[in-house]
């Protein structure tokens, strides 16, 4: 019984972390789809040159994926630094005032529904086993063995964006000139419906609203960029 709080937290934290990673991958792919589709459809409004479309699409893919990777690296590095600082502070407090930390852990476990006696017993056993890990998980919500790696996050964001961006790029470049626009629009809307459904499923929310929001946003982005490209193309810019 006394191991239940730590075990439950570790299990829930691991599952939550995996869901967060999966959700981030879906959103990264979604960003790649929308941004690259908006770019290549805008260029398609101005020119039918396959070389120009390929160049624009590849430039958008590389710029977007690198930007996503850099942003994720900075963000996760900041989070990891904060987690390490919190663990260092907790380690110092455990060394300087162990009794106060034991009382704090007892109180935290009692707030989770344990009786005072059981909470005290559980806190003592968790402290004897690994005091820092117990406080990290129960008090801070951190698993010291599973701190997020910024390089992993950067690579995952890079790959997710790239995978998403390849769809509109291939759709605009590979088909014949007369068919590439409608093929791109339909394939992008289908992919956005899929990512909308997936993100809703991961978040346990109604899928219809997420699908509608996703596809409407993508359609609006493509309409705006295509209109702008057509105006620039007509003006000979």
What's this, in brief?
With 237 residues, this protein is mostly helical. It contains seven helices and no strands.
Number of helices: 7
| DSSP helix fraction | over 70%
Gap from first CA to last CA: 73 Å
Largest sheet: none
- Beta content comes to under 5%
Q: For the CA atoms, what is the radius of gyration?
A: 25 Å
Query: What is the helix/strand order?
Result: HHHHHHH
List keywords for this structure.
single chain, mainly alpha, 7 helices, 86% helix, 0% strand, disordered N terminus
Describe this structure in words.
With 237 residues, this protein is mainly α. It has one domain. The radius of gyration is 25 Å and the shape is elongated. Helices cover 86% and strands 0% of the residues. Helix 3 crosses helix 4. It is built from seven helices and no strands.
Spell out the blueprint of helices and strands.
Layout: H1 4-46, H2 50-96, H3 98-111, H4 116-140, H5 150-173, H6 180-202, H7 207-234
Helix pairs in contact: 1-2, 1-4, 1-5, 1-6, 1-7, 2-3, 2-4, 2-5, 3-4, 5-6, 6-7
């Amino acid at each position: 019984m006394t191991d239940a709080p730590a075990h439950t937290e570790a299990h829930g934290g691991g599952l939550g972390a995996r869901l967060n990673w999966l959700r981030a991958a879906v959103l990264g792919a979604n960003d790649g789809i929308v941004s690259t589709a908006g770019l290549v459809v805008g260029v398609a409004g101005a020119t039918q040159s396959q070389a120009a479309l390929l160049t624009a699409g590849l430039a958008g893919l590389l710029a977007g994926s690198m930007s996503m990777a850099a942003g994720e690296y900075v963000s996760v590095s900041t989070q990891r630094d904060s987690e390490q600082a919190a663990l260092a502070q907790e380690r110092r407090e455990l060394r300087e005032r162990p009794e106060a930390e034991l009382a704090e852990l007892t109180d935290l476990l009692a707030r989770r529904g344990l009786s005072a006696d059981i909470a005290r017993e559980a806190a003592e056993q968790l402290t004897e086993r690994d005091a820092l890990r117990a406080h990290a998980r129960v008090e801070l919500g951190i698993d010291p063995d599973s701190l997020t790696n910024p390089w992993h996050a950067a690579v995952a964001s890079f790959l997710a964006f790239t995978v998403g961006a390849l769809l509109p790029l291939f759709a605009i470049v590979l088909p014949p000139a007369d068919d590439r626009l409608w093929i791109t629009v339909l394939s992008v809307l289908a992919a956005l419906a899929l990512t909308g459904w997936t993100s809703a499923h991961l978040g346990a929310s109604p899928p219809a609203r997420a699908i509608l929001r996703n596809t409407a946003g993508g359609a609006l982005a493509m309409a705006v960029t295509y209109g702008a490209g057509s105006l620039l193309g007509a003006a000979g810019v």
